[in-house]
Amino acid sequence: MSVDNTTTMIEAETAAALPALLARSYARYSNFTVAAAVIDDEGRVHLGVNVENAAYPSGTCAEQTAIGAMVTAGSRRIARVLIAAGSNAVVQPCGACRQRIAEFAADDCEIVSVQDGAPTTRKTFWSLLPDSFGPRDLD
Ligand code: THU
After folding, report:
1. Is 103 part of the annotated catalytic residue set?
2. Per-residue confidence of the chain (139 residues) as pLDDT tens digits?
3. Which residues does a 6 A CB cutoff place in the pocket of ligand 1?
4. Closest residue by CA, ligand 1 atom 14
5. Of 5, 57, 81, 121, which is least packed with CB atoms within 10 Å of its CB?
6. How far is the CA of 135 from the centre of ligand 1 (A)?
7. CB 37, CB 82: distance < 8 Å
8. Which of 18, 22, 28, 34 to mutate to test the pocket of ligand 1 (most atoms within 8 A of CB)?
């Protein structure tokens, strides 16, 4: 099977798993549950949910949790980010998460919305954060 087909299969399987993961979101204050998956450049999947906090700004987005899981697992390159909301709406990553994704995004990284457990809207990540500040600026 080609690399592309394998990636598509991983994406479909991961999207199908996200609705169940929403149940683990800790969205006590907003009741807006989000589940995210980061697929790294080796096709490994790293999951996350939003984790809110009584001190509101201390809460974390699902994408942030998933990126932390990816780095903890030893990966450094994001191929795709899948995002599912409990509302089933298409949700794009917030500004702060775009910056966090940018740190590790591959040149062809994609943001994939998940609705009803299936991939729907797809955007190239760098179209969402052009002309950004990143690791290269510090080299
Ligand atoms: N949230 C995410 O986890 N990811 C997004 O892409 C958008 C927003 C969370 C943060 C907060 O816990 C809740 O959704 C409402 O903003």
Report:
1. no
2. 676 778 889 999 999 999 999 999 999 999 999 999 999 999 999 999 999 999 999 999 999 999 999 999 999 999 999 999 999 999 999 999 999 999 999 999 999 999 999 999 999 999 999 999 999 999 9
3. 27, 30, 32, 34, 50, 52, 59, 61-63, 83, 91, 93-94, 97
4. 32
5. 57
6. 25
7. yes
8. 34
Give CA–CA dist 15/29, Å, rounded.
25
Rg (CA), the chain: 14
Position in ligand 1 atom list of the atom nearest CA 92? 6
Contact by Cβ (8 Å): 119, 12: yes
Are 81 and 92 a contacting pair, CB within 8 Å?
no
Please tell me whether residue 28 adopts helix, strand or coil conformation: coil
In the block, tokens 């775009």 appear at 98
